[in-house]
Amino acid sequence: MDTRFDLFSTETGSRLGKRFANLGQVIESSPLPKLTRELVSLRASQLNGCGWCLDMHAKEAAAAGESPVRLALVAAWRESTVFTEAERAALALAEEGTRLADAAEGVSDETWARVREHYDDEQVAALVALVALINAANRLAVIVHQKGGSYEPGMLAGFAGRG
């Protein structure tokens, strides 16, 4: 399948993209660890089948020092020993927050308690916003068939704030 539409070639799409980037900068400047942010983004993107976002976040994580083993095991984090308890809590929140339609409860009390055990209020605010933002970004890219493979680490730096 070819890309259906270059969303960001339109004035409206470009303005939306900049707002997304601005939100991303708020999350990036939060105390939520960079590698946790990338792992969460990877897991949600795997669940949503977003090639563009998988490409971006795998490469950004690798550029930030994430190991190939941990990147390869994100999809099977429950059956892996390479993630901390805090990361496991964040990955559980990412999954449950992504699969809202699959569970009447949404995010379970158990997952929420584990998140609160490992993250302070500022980090929780960033984590919740990140799960919402990556899911929205996944939907934009999947709808227009935006393909993965061409992303270079840092290529979107500076996109926020313009316009």
TrEMBL record:
Coiled coil: none annotated. GO terms for molecular function: peroxiredoxin activity. Residues 19-96 form the Carboxymuconolactone decarboxylase-like domain. The keyword Oxidoreductase applies. Keywords: Oxidoreductase, Peroxidase. SUPFAM superfamilies: AhpD-like. This is Alkylhydroperoxidase. It comes from Amycolatopsis rifamycinica. The lineage of its organism: Bacteria, Bacillati, Actinomycetota, Actinomycetes, Pseudonocardiales.
